[in-house]
């Protein structure tokens, strides 16, 4: 597991998330821990190292 900090695309607060680096490519929905809006998270690991992270708002 790896902790990653990013900015919520809704409320602009910095939040942290634990990422599972045992799966090389993942896309999932996670609610912001501050404003509770849904965020689509897209991540990719190469050799257990984070090479891509994207956090997008969901269709508004």
Molecular structure report:
The protein is an all-beta fold. It has one domain. It has strands at 2-7, 14-19, 25-31, 38-46, 49-57. The chain has a 3-stranded antiparallel beta sheet with strand order 3-4-5, with no helix packed on it. It has a two-stranded antiparallel ribbon with strand order 1-2. It comes from Hwangdonia lutea. This is CPXCG motif-containing cysteine-rich protein.
What brief labels describe this structure?
single chain, 60 residues, mainly beta, two-stranded antiparallel ribbon, 5 strands, elongated, CPXCG motif-containing cysteine-rich protein, UCP037225, zinc_ribbon_bacterial
Main beta-sheet strand count, sense and barrel state: 3 strands, antiparallel
Shape: elongated
What structural category characterises the helix and strand content?
mainly beta
Per DSSP E runs of 2 or more residues, the count of β-strands stands at 5
Radius of gyration in whole Å, from Cα?
A: 11 Å
Summarize this structure briefly.
With 60 residues, the protein is an all-beta fold. It contains no helices and 5 strands.
Map the helices and strands.
Layout: E1 2-7, E2 14-19, E3 25-31, E4 38-46, E5 49-57
Antiparallel strand pairs: 1-2, 3-4, 4-5
Protein name: CPXCG motif-containing cysteine-rich protein
Organism: Hwangdonia lutea
């Amino acid at each position: 597991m790896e902790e990653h900090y990013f900015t919520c695309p809704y409320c602009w607060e910095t939040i942290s998330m634990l990422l599972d680096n045992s799966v090389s490519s993942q896309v999932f929905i996670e609610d912001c821990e501050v404003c509770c809006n849904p965020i689509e998270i897209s991540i990719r690991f190469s050799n257990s190292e984070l090479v891509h992270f994207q956090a997008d708002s969901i269709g508004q």
